[in-house]
Amino acid sequence: MTPSATPAYRRLSVEERRSQLLEAALKLFAHRAPEDVSLDDVAEAAGVSRPLVYRYFPGGKQQLYEAALRSAAEELQHCFDEPRQGPLLSRLSRALDRYLSFVDEHDTGFSALLQGGSVVETSRTTAIVDGVRRAAAEHIYRHLGVADPGARLRMTVRTWITAVEAASLIWLDEDKQPPVEELRDWLVEQFVAVLTVTASRDPQTAAVIGALAEDGRD
Amino acid sequence: MTPSATPAYRRLSVEERRSQLLEAALKLFAHRAPEDVSLDDVAEAAGVSRPLVYRYFPGGKQQLYEAALRSAAEELQHCFDEPRQGPLLSRLSRALDRYLSFVDEHDTGFSALLQGGSVVETSRTTAIVDGVRRAAAEHIYRHLGVADPGARLRMTVRTWITAVEAASLIWLDEDKQPPVEELRDWLVEQFVAVLTVTASRDPQTAAVIGALAEDGRD
To answer: How far is B218 from chain A (nearest CA, A)?
Structure first.
């Protein structure tokens, strides 16, 4: 092939090449189980040679998977970015919309990652996932205006976050039924319902529920 | 050692020996992370030689762990056995009492198993855990008198089961606070609350909530 046949070709920087490989890997891992993705597939999808993939990820598939997962985790954490203005439940609703779009776009990878027993699961991948859960909880406390959440509020929020994950997995398993808007509204209502249960035993959570009710009246 | 020094000694049958080794293993796996249990520890706890452990479990620790897990899963499923009589929420409450005792007794093993990323986690261990979750859901449908649960009721029940698991892990993580009776009552109330949310969109769940309300009036 003569240079004129590939006029757009230019040498990528190390960072650009790395990003390009990660992006190709993430797309593959999004829709296939990790065991069904080979480095050959990644090389082919990125239009590069297999040795080049190994040069960037000498640890092979495991290293590539973890790097792709870290990049997905960052993307997922951006879903939670939401200005602290407007009714609280509308903010939650918008964050859930973004989260559920992410789940929709990374369906197979999301299931493989969270359903456990995957060949690429390690204490490091678990730590990355736990980091996302912790970030989600912190965002919620911040929006609720709670600086120092007590044990009962923490348990309620963390349990609800797990319920969101579980519902997302079931939703994927049920061919994405019910419609995503219904799922989102159901999750928001569950949030209020579980906080309300806790509120009867915990003054801090009762204050949060009070604020949510005020909020609805604005 | 002369025979008279061990008068109680008798040769165990294959099944008895297997049970004895499993029981010793389960006790060790209950309170230590799987990576901190060696076959030597199991041999020592059971008072037998390491080669004997290998004779029964030639697949080594992984095989022993899976066998111990299967035995724990059976024990856990017995927690759900509850006669179909008396108020529904009292039955749920009793089943949760047994479940939470199990969690209390197998604390470290329960966390290691469910928190993911464990060295002994495989698609087989995941399948065993999923079997327990499915059994729990089936028990609930039966008690609710629902022969053919629809997608919305299924999602609600399965999500609640995951929430119970998550709450149990958080409870262990928080040094078993709040008191177990409060946790149990909170989980029962959560069950009613999440079903109530679903009931507004799903006639089948609305009927279940109606029956629970009737029940409370008996």
So the answer is: 23
Domains parsed from chain B with CATH numbers: 8-69 (1.10.357.10), 80-218 (1.10.357.10)
All residues of chain A having their beta carbon less than 8 Å from the beta carbon of residue B62 are none
Structure tokens at A182: 């219904």
Closest CA to B91 of B207, B6, B218, B188: B188
Q: Find the mean pLDDT for residues A93-109.
A: 94
Please check whether residue A110 is in contact with residue A172, taking contact to mean a CB–CB distance below 8 angstroms.
Answer: yes
- Write the pLDDT tens digit of every residue in B166-192: 999 999 999 999 999 999 999 999 999
CA atoms within 13 A on the CB side of B141: 20
Interchain contact, B116 vs A126, CB within 8 Å? yes
pLDDT for res B208: 95
Amino acid A108: pLDDT = 86
Contacts of B127 in chain A (CB under 8 A): 117
Nearest to A116 among B116, B159, B193 (CB): B116
| DSSP for residue B148 | S
ipTM metric: 0.87
> Are A205 and A198 within 8 A, CB to CB?
yes
pLDDT digits (tens, 9 = 90+) for A111-145: 887 876 666 777 788 889 899 999 999 999 999 99
**DSSP H/E element including A26:** helix A14-31
Contacts of A91 (CB under 8 A, 6+ apart): A82, A83, A84, A143
Residues of chain B with pLDDT below 50 are: 1-7
What is the four-CA torsion angle of A99, A104, A107, A110, rounded to 10 degrees? Answer: 0
